[in-house]
Design a protein that fits this description.
Blueprint: E1 4-7, E2 10-13, E3 18-24, E4 30-36, E5 43-49, E6 55-57, E7 65-70, E8 75-80, E9 89-96, E10 105-106, E11 110-115
Length: 116
């Protein structure tokens, strides 16, 4: 069992920046961020592999968001720059523990609100 705890959410103005963190209780193969806006489906935002640090981003956030990791404390960060109102959502941290499987663990989610 891996527990994920997100932190760093909040309210920012459009064009501003915010960094959210996800602390995992154990190491997994990859960790990522998803988000869900009211009335919308949960969507992929970014992910990072623990082995080589390879990253992947949704096209909607590419160039604005940066995902990174700190091995010492199994923590993943999502730096969000040039925020837009459409970035407003609950952001969920997720972790995958199997190479062929999907995401096995999920955080409770944190609110990120971008005002116009």
């Amino acid at each position: 069992q891996v527990q994920l705890v997100e932190s760093g959410g909040g309210l920012v103005q459009a064009g501003g920046s915010l960094t959210v963190s996800c602390a995992a209780s154990g190491r997994t193969l990859r960790m990522g961020w998803f988000r869900q806006a009211p009335g919308k489906e949960r969507e992929f935002v970014a992910r990072i592999k623990w082995t080589d640090g390879n990253t992947s981003y949704a096209s909607s956030v590419k160039g604005r968001f940066t995902i990174s990791r700190v091995n010492a404390n199994n923590t993943v960060y999502l730096q969000m720059n040039s925020l837009k109102p459409e970035d407003t959502a609950i952001y969920y941290c997720a972790a995958a523990g199997a190479a062929l499987g999907g995401y096995d663990y999920w955080g409770q989610g944190i609110q990120v609100t971008v005002s116009s």
